[in-house]
Amino acid sequence: MVRAVDSRALDPLTHALAGATLAWTATGAKLGHRAIVIGAAAALLPDVDVLIRSAADPLLAIEHHRGFTHALLFVPIGGALAALPFAAKGQKRHAALAGIVAYASHSLLDAATTYGTQLLWPFSRHRVGLDVISIIDPIFTLIVLAGVIAAFAARRSIAVIALVLAMTWLATGFVQRERATAAQTRIASHRNDPIERAAVFPTIGNTPVWRSIYATTNGALRIDRIRVPWLGSATHAPVTTVPLAGRDAIRGNARILRDFDRFTWFSDGWVARAPADPDVIGDARYSLRADRYEPVWGIRFPPGADPPTEWVNRTRNRDVGAAQLWDEIRGADSAFRPVP
Fold this sequence. Notes:
By secondary structure, the protein is of the alpha+beta class. The chain has 2 domains: 2-173, no CATH class; 176-338, no CATH class. Helices cover 40% and strands 17% of the residues. The chain has helices spanning 12-31, 34-44, 60-64, 75-83, 92-111, 138-152, 156-190, 254-266, 322-330; strands spanning 2-3, 195-202, 209-216, 220-227, 235-243, 271-274, 277-283, 297-300, 310-313, 319-320, 337-338. It has a 5-stranded antiparallel beta sheet. It has a 4-stranded antiparallel beta sheet with strand order 6-7-8-9. It is globular and about 65 Å long.
């Protein structure tokens, strides 16, 4: 089994490598290897918002992570701040450019994942999540690692090729997402399910296998696994059907209702009670297991507790069955059947 990292952000190593490659490609001729250091530092800085938390308000962290420090408006400020300690005399302008392009890469790459990034803060709290890359993608990481190696070797052409390949890989994610969405639509039509809203999310480290979720007009959430090989027809494996958790079923004071609304916003409306622990209202986009719904995180409202809301985080219990996932990727999992 492979222990998964926190599913709410692209992994820090990939951020640092991408930022370093971009910064060196843009300013390496002026800054040399200093551009690599500035790029890595700037690409990691947006996640300083993980320090925003409070014992009195367990949801403060999820409300502000990927918030203002990830916003496009904050990019020039954050990039310049990251570059400042490394800027030599006469190089401040180039150092700032290195910091800004690397800082921007963090916000945009996080927006390419599922969790959602408040790119338009303070004008909008909408969480942009493009669902085109997993938070762990070895191919993308290796591509930007090649870019950093090229930077250290002062091979700009190779670094540029690495960036082009990285963008191509993200574009592949867009194509695969659309193919998975088309398969999802056919599955729902075959079931005669009236879809109210739907989404597909990439699974760990690959683009062929997707987690599908859609809400029906009768308040049910249908969850499936969809496989869209680069060549060949789509297949799918049904996972489960659970009721959508609605606000009308929440009992409590104004604070409890407000916290439920905050968690629903965070989860983009994909909320359902955990079948094995109905007190937990979970984010249905993520699960500890591929074959059933066990929320990775969620909330509960213990009677008489202060604060009244408990944040439930089972990230450390999330194991990715590498053998099972590999079987899914290569089409050897017998649970998958042709998409109608």
